[in-house]
Automatic annotation (TrEMBL):
One CC-aspect GO term: plasma membrane
Swiss-Prot/TrEMBL keywords: Cell shape
Superkingdom per UniProt: Bacteria
Organism: Alysiella crassa
Role played: Involved in formation and maintenance of cell shape.
Recorded family membership: Belongs to the MreC family.
Protein name as catalogued: Cell shape-determining protein MreC
This protein's record includes keyword Lipid biosynthesis: no
Source species taxonomy: Bacteria, Pseudomonadati, Pseudomonadota, Betaproteobacteria, Neisseriales
Length: 296
């Protein structure tokens, strides 16, 4: 039986020795590089041989940077798209509001000009309700009533023409029956020729029932109020002739009319007093002056 004894092995290249060897080699290479051109050539060849390894080792880093920048750019574009979409929606809403305000301002300016042209006793009102069916109803509600001097029978116009007539007057509001209502009949005349006739409302439209074929009537003719009644002042646009044809077996035209006023679109209207009411208002102003002038 033999006993085996193991002795610890001593390694020459300890970390300290490795450091010394590498330092000596570095100094030796520096000296050789400064004094011998062959070392420089060797460095070039070594760099050429090692370049593919360097190129391959850099690719993962470049790929990571590329992917990272791609995600950052995508996040930026998504956030910018959200911001621009929100900004675009806000600007569209503001544009619509400005457009509506401009339209309302235009209506008010036109109504103010009508008042300056001799309708000083008229009343400006705002449409506050269009009934249960805004597109089919023949009635509107305005925010002026008997407190503002609005009475039943007064005519109502917008910036484009005749809208209808006051049929109910409350203290703070009034009801308008549009010219397309079944009970509305309007004395009119053709602006181009002066021929007088009647326009009837009904079924949401206007009709010219008894216009003789021997009279002159053409498309695009405008029908104005003739002023033959005490309700509608003379010269207000009522409708435009869109189409004319002869009814077989009758001496009257078959006419298609389009209302001049924006019956379901106008927000502001002008209430015109009836002739008797206007005369009464004028007499209240004139009588005191006349009595004063006759006083001794």
């Amino acid at each position: 039986m033999s006993n085996h004894f193991s002795f610890p092995r001593r390694t020459f290249l300890t970390p300290a020795n490795k450091l010394i060897v590498l330092a000596v080699l570095s100094v030796l290479l520096l000296v050789l590089d400064n004094h011998y051109s062959g070392v420089s050539k060797g460095k070039k060849y070594a760099a050429l041989v090692l370049y593919p390894m360097q190129w391959v080792s850099n690719k993962p880093v470049r790929l990571y940077e590329y992917i990272n920048s791609l995600f950052q750019a995508q996040d930026y574009l998504l956030n910018e798209n959200k911001r621009l979409t929100s900004e675009n929606a806000r600007l569209k809403m503001e544009a619509r509001q400005i457009s509506l305000q401009s339209r309302e301002l235009s209506e008010l300016k036109t109504l103010a000009q009508l008042q300056e042209l001799g309708l000083n006793s008229s009343t400006t009102a705002e449409v506050v309700s269009s009934g249960e069916d805004p597109l089919a109803s023949d009635h509107l509600i305005i925010n002026k009533g008997s407190q503002a001097g609005v009475v039943t029978g007064d005519a109502v116009v917008d910036e484009n023409g005749l809208m209808g007539q006051i049929t109910e007057s409350q203290h703070l509001s009034s009801k308008i029956s549009l010219i397309t209502d079944n009970h509305i009949v309007i004395p009119v005349m053709v602006e181009r020729t002066g021929v007088r006739t009647l326009v009837y409302g009904g079924g949401g439209t206007l009709s010219l029932r008894y216009f003789p074929t021997d009279a002159d009537l053409q498309p695009d003719d405008v029908l104005l109020t003739s002023g033959l009644d005490s309700v509608y002042p003379v010269g207000i646009p009522v409708a435009r002739v869109m189409q004319t044809s002869r009814n077989a077996g009758t001496p009257y035209y078959k006419v298609v009319l389009q209302p001049s006023a924006a019956l379901h679109a106008s927000k502001y209207v002008l209430v015109l007093p009836q002739k008797e009411q206007a005369v009464g208002i004028a007499s209240d102003v004139v009588v005191p002056n006349s009595s004063a002038s006759s006083a001794p």
